[in-house]
Design brief:
globular, homodimer, alpha/beta, 15 helices, 18% strand
Chain lengths: 371, 371
């Protein structure tokens, strides 16, 4: 069921527009995927996600495995039915959260042992097990277990992590091929820290294993933005043109426009949702903080001309009031706007690529920010 | 613009069905009014309130006066536009919160001084000022400033509070008549603590002042439910049959059915919304606590047969998961169900009164609870 079709290439950059087909529907790329960590994109319903134009969402295997667990989600034939989202779902492998959230994470060739951040219970995640879990979740796009090394990392440690990542990728692929859900996709994840030759080696090893799509992992882990872009710039052209390319956990609108220019098709990031809950609002004119006193009596919407539910019905003054009063509705209305902004931004980029006007779109974007 | 029309009387009890007309629309009574304390019924949008059948909501003058303040809400020509709710709004006078939330509340004949619970700033609320504030909010139904005495109270203190309440009611009425919003309604509030003769005196004094509607205040302040019902039973028949009767801050579904039987037309209470946020769900079969482990893999909706958005789309297992993970969506989905339950319950009572089958409805209600 899974396929990727390239629709258009920018003639002025490596930007490209495509179409991902999954058992739960079509995804137009480049695409931004809102993050539904624990089976809910925080504060919003699936209907609201559809209304802001979301085509695919992300779920976190680590969180869902620990709570509510596969026994519960299994009773619902998967995450789609459990959370009432009928569109495509991509799940990560859990590796990133094991290293960033769990306690006492220890890597061996077998897999990674860790203690739950919730109750301290001990767990072992192997390449085979993360595929089983993602099968239970019913993911349309599964990710391989990878060893996502922290930044900065020595060359030696980065090489070791890369080698384990390749070994695990092979075992993930094997388990995926033997499972009944081969119609869903499995993506490999390129590692290699900030070493270009290791990035190249990781990409080439994964391409030999052969996946329906490739992610660039281990970025946006604390390195400067220019290093992140440099690594992406180096790694992306190595990956096959005919497969979707996904950069994990990135990023700001500026990151997105630069990475689309480099040929990235898929993005996920908690930025629009998390920052919404902290009062930071994204607009084409830059970010605003809704708690700012200047909005106290401001009858204008968050962003002039925006067509999201929040901007059509509420003023900055009301949203500031809700936020200052810590009203639950504040988080949701801000989230709706921010997700709408990120998704609309990607759609505009896609339109610009289709019209082969991506470079002028990029210029316009920066000009608006400066005004 | 304000009017009240009696449509039907139960022949077996004092239950009655009516119609309140306001500048922002019609309210069918008996009615339950969800509480939008600070310009938001916590966690839900106006569209969701309409979807669960809400016809009128309540706003708290004390909270809105302190934050965001009349200067802000005044920029929006009132609370309706500010919060994007186009239906009728009833606002209380702020008196109850001054005594329950603010610090150093001191009563004089002039009014009540207090310190804000937010920043300790000093304020004076007079009968004239609470009408001005409610005019600024654009309330469809305003309430008089009253002296809501704590429970238990001595007869002497209750009498003093009653006398001040009557004096303030006269001044409120005077200010309301002189203001430009006389087309909106002003209700008097009967006090008198738990002394029937004081209740009678308060009601009679207010009826001489003459209001478009009457509330019974000072109930549900800590007294046993049977005392509350006894006071309501005694006070309600004194009030004119041709005016709406409102019991403030009550109550449980059992309270509602008993008070409707005694002839109450209007109710407000934070119970469905606050308890939703604590995981307590109201159903016709009694309450359930969604955190209970028995719901871990329960694929059924909160209440079988319920037509609310939550029950149509989500399982107990998912709602339990959201609640245990403290996901923001949990509070909203639980709130939607609970408000829907309270409002549907009132609508069923109204239908029963119209069909003159209220007593059999009441019996059925208790039978379902026992099963």
């Amino acid at each position: 069921m899974f396929s990727f079709e390239l629709i258009a290439h920018s003639t002025e950059s490596r930007a490209r527009a495509g179409m991902v087909r999954t058992s739960h529907g079509v995804v137009e790329t480049p695409v931004f995927m809102p993050v539904g960590t624990r089976g809910s994109v925080k504060s919003v319903t699936p209907e609201e996600l559809l209304a802001v134009g979301a085509q695919i969402i992300l779920g976190n295997t680590y969180h869902l495995y620990l709570r509510p667990g596969c026994d519960v989600i299994g009773s619902f034939a998967g995450l789609h039915q459990f959370m009432h989202w009928d569109g495509p779902i991509l799940t990560d492998s859990g590796g990133f959260q094991v290293f960033s959230l769990a306690k006492l994470a220890k890597i061996s060739e077998e897999g990674v042992t860790f203690q739950s951040h919730l109750d301290g219970s001990s767990h072992l995640l192997t390449p085979e097990k993360v595929i089983d879990i993602q099968n239970c979740l019913g993911s349309d796009i599964m990710m391989c277990l990878d060893d996502c090394i922290q930044y900065p990392a020595t060359r030696k440690d980065s090489l070791t992590a890369l080698e384990i990542t390749t070994k695990w990728a092979k075992r993930c692929k094997q388990t995926w091929r033997e499972s009944e859900t081969e119609h869903n996709a499995l993506f490999g994840i390129v590692q290699g820290s900030m070493y270009t030759d290791l990035r190249q080696r990781s990409a080439e090893e994964l391409m030999i294993v052969d996946f329906p799509g490739y992610a660039v992992g281990g970025l946006s882990v604390g390195e400067p933005a220019e290093v992140m872009l440099e690594m992406a710039d180096y790694t992306l052209p190595i990956l096959p043109d005919t497969k979707p390319r996904y950069i994990m956990g990135v990023g700001t609108p500026e990151n997105l426009v630069e990475l689309v220019a480099l040929g990235v098709d898929m993005f996920d990031c908690v930025l629009p949702t998390r920052n919404a809950r902290n009062g930071q609002i994204f607009t084409q004119f830059g970010t605003i903080n809704i708690s700012n006193a200047q909005y106290k009596e401001d009858t204008e919407p968050l962003e002039s001309g925006c067509k999201c539910y929040t901007c059509r019905n509420y003023s900055r003054a009301y949203l500031r009031h809700l936020y200052m009063a810590r009203e639950l509705l504040a988080y949701r209305l801000n989230t709706i706007h921010n997700i709408h902004y990120f998704i609309s931004f990607m759609k505009q980029m896609r339109q610009a690529i289709l019209a082969d006007k991506f470079e002028s779109f990029r210029k316009d974007y920066y000009q608006k920010l400066e005004n």
